[in-house]
Amino acid sequence: MATAKGDEKYNIEKLRGAENWPTWRWHVEMVLQAKCVLDIVEGKRVLPLPKDPEKPTETELAAERKWRGDDLVAATTIAGTLTSDVAQLVLTTRSSVVMWATLTNTFEHGDTQRVHTILTRFMTAVKRPEQSMAAYIASMKKDFFDLNHEFNRQATEDATAAGGNVSQAVKQQIPESILHYRILCSISDEYSVLKDIWKTRPRKEQTLVALSELLCSKEQELEAGGLAGSSAAFLTHKQFRHKGKSLDGSSKSSDKENEKSSGNGKKNRYSSYKCYKCNKMGHLAKQCRNKTSDKGKTNLSTELASSGAFIANMLVKGNADGWVCDSGASDHMTGSKHYFASYEAFQTPRMVGTAASDTLLYAVGTGNINVLMTVNGQQRTANDDDKFNSDTLSDNPLINEIVALIGRLYSMSSLPRSIVQLVVESVTEMMRSLSTYLKSIMEQLELTSQHVLAISNVFSDLLNVLEELGSEYLRFKYFTNLNTYIKPETFIIGEQPVFQGQIWRNLVQKYPNDKIILPLLIYFDDFECCNPLGSKAGVYKIGATYVSLACIPPELATLLENILVCCLFYSSDRTAFGNKKIFSKLMDELIFLETQGITINFNAKKINVYFTVVTVLGDNLGLNSILGFTESFQANNFCRICKSTKAESKTQFVEDPSQIRTEENYLQDVETLSAGIKEPCMWRTLPKFVQKKIISKMLKLFQLA
Q1: How far apart are the first and last CA of the chain?
Q2: Is a pLDDT exceeding 80 seen at residue 585?
Q3: In this structure, are residues 308 and 339 in contact, taking their beta carbons and an 8 Å threshold?
Q4: 351 and 208 housed in the same domain
Q5: 145 within a domain of the structure (yes/no)
Q6: Neighbour count for residue 415 (Cβ, 10 Å)
Q7: Does the pTM exceed 0.90?
Q8: What is the dihedral sign for C-alpha 657, 660, 664, 668?
Q9: Residue 516 has pLDDT above 60, yes or no
């Protein structure tokens, strides 16, 4: 129960996850719109800032209080409709905009992925046999509305970024005729006549309401004629009774009403049902007067145990592994759902044969059922397992080849995993198109139902397997169950933040105790803008310097939004003019941040924050370049850590303390520009800079393996 302003109350089902996300979002948007705060959640109404922050007017303060109050109402409405598990996603914020964006990105992924998902669902939707026409049209209309909403939102964002007319971008709409076309193309052939009628209607009369009325009226005609629902494999009924007791053990009422209802003077409730014994309309098999077909048959039991759902007979002749299960009803239905031990829906409906005649039905799922069977003259309840698993998958050689192909693709280290996903999706689309093409050919060849069933099931199995392996998560899960994939595990052996190191202790001692100091990391590297991933640089080689905070958590430090570019230049200019001139502006900024800092306003107080460089990062060539060492690794003194010569380093396996660079011998070598030093290190001009050698094991050790 969500409570609005005043005495208004709204019943909103709490958000549990992706399964009820569309319904929850629609309901919450309606409530937010009723409270006049939906524009805040969508980011269309932002916090009004005063023109002069030092002297805001009363009107500006009132507008700010009004906005914050509306934002609190929106945030309270959203937070009050979340389960405890989902609420963990937004515990770190009180902003309704951030809450809404977090939930949208979690359950609808990114903008592009969200549009792709809705568009795929809209373009591939097919009306299921058990689904009513009104419900199907409503689902298609919902997807159509979501598509328009996403396209309009993206158009609004693009127009805002470009400074264009936002109102014109919002008015862009997908033609409703596309929705009409998709609905007509995704329904069964029983409505083919209506498709031709719809094409002849004037364009002004082709509305969604008119199409819904036309299709729903046709559906009612088919139901009255007993045609609708004949292609469904399982239907539901309120109660199914047998031999004096219902299957759940309750007493059975008299069948006199059913017998009376079959009279001519009264309306027959079974007029649309066909008896499977005499093939006549108007009654069920148990009411049929033709009992000759039942003579000579052995009745297994006068009463079914409470744990049995069907009676099955195994035929000695024919295939010994073939079983035929039939409930004995004209339409296959059951009201005892608890007899199904488990149930799993198919990704796509499969055609199966019936026991009564040479016809085909569409099965929508598979699972375990309790079967009362006779073994050696004794009745017992058995569990029939008909589920897809890794054992049944291995029986089909084509499926094994698909799984082996995916395994071979993953084994190729030079092949990106995104290409594997692309191959799986392409093969799935190819198999789906091939299945549709072969079905059209089989219809022209007039094959028997057994042939159509066999060929259709092959493609259905392949498509089901490809869809079960459609994502990398499902593929890794499948290979893990086969014990062919061992997932790598990460072990944390220790950590040492920058605040616990000696470098930070030395830096802090240079500032008063009451100052706020934040550590900075400087990173330098060259890249080729026309070939950023290549190993060789050309004439467009650019040097880039980045800065980031060393005190934020790793999950935030690795975000691109927290790695800032502070200096860009042509690498050839650095070679021509030197490091001092290239980095002069950057050095001035760093000196200002160390000595003057910046001033921020917090709780009506001015606070000074200082920034100091902890260390300079880069690869071997990059560090040698900006630290003033030789850039040739073939030089006699190529190492910036020690003064060992190239000849000594080839035979030296133990560290020689006398060769390690120190501040004293570094100053001596700078004066003569010897021992691999080209120029003085410009970073020493920083007032608070602490000299420290840090070696990266990634560059020094792992690259040598």
Answers
A1: 62
A2: yes
A3: yes
A4: no
A5: yes
A6: 13
A7: no
A8: positive
A9: yes
